[in-house]
Amino acid sequence: MRVATNGPFLSGSADRFDEWFHLPIDFVSPDPRVAVRRARPTEFERIYDAVDEAFATKRPRAWYDWLYRRNPHGVARCWVVVEEATGRLVATQAGCPWPLASGSRPVAAILSADWVIAPDWRGRGINEVRREARNAHPWDYASVRIGWPNARSGTATSRSSFGDQVHGPIPRAVFLLRPAEYLRRRGWPRRLSAVAGRITDATLATWTALRLDRQFDGTIEPIQQFDSGYDAVTERCMRWEKYWLPHDAAFLNWRYFAHPVFEYRACAAIVDGAVVGYCVVQVGGERAWLAELAAPSARVAAAFMRWAIAIAREADCTNFAVYAPPRWRHWQVLRRAGFARVSSNLFMSLFASQEPDCQELDGWQFLAGDIDGL
To answer: Who has the most CB within 10 Å: 87, 126, 249, 374?
Structure first.
């Protein structure tokens, strides 16, 4: 598959959805009960309904449209399974065009998003038919497919016969922002959690102040919008000799500032009037997440973490979580800040027929900004 690029970044060229949709494939469903085909955007409403039914939820339509229609790298590529007797859509898988590079070389990639089967069709063998159809498409087969299953769905993925490999669990670390509330919500008695929380809070505050108190000759300033000048910062701070996910300015603005549901805060590190790095945090609810950390040094990363912890506290979150691969470049900064490694139920699934070297978690750099559940 040909990938138009600007260095490691996907360019702003026209979406190639129509080419993907019309490209002939050599596939006929071996199961007479169902047909498997690609879906047009005019069918997205039916897909949204199918996902809501499968998850027994009602996700806002604006959220669906943001993910399926507004991605600056292209409209979602959806494979649907249709019951022949009724025309009912009984399964769907959405794939979102996603930025990926190996060093400075761009790599065609798809992020697996909603992947569901109607409740009354589960265990009836249609999942393998859907996989077979998707893998018959030369573009889909040549792309790296990235997914983020939990332990249960990861086991099912690893047992498939179509080349997906599951890695993990993905390391997770947590910083307690309101220890008493965090412990109480996990079943501790109120009085005991209050005492333990006060001790933990005081200890963490002292520890963080001491360990992150590195002089930073610059300022931390809020970002309202990313411009193309940030692309050079991204490449300089985040480029990795193996596999990384280069987010250009258009992608960052869509991913964070255009999200219809979640709230994100972003800041830049400014030294002598120039941007040298940036950080993005998701806030709201019980937990804050580190979504982006582009820092040229441990000193700048420490300044960002001081800012991020303060922002998460201000948003009244009880804890601050980070998911990152084992060789993520800033783990040491998190340890100094007082983050503790905890158990993780998140895995990474990869299909990579053309990129066998990517099947090693140690060869990746990513954060929560690329994880499903967007």
So the answer is: 126
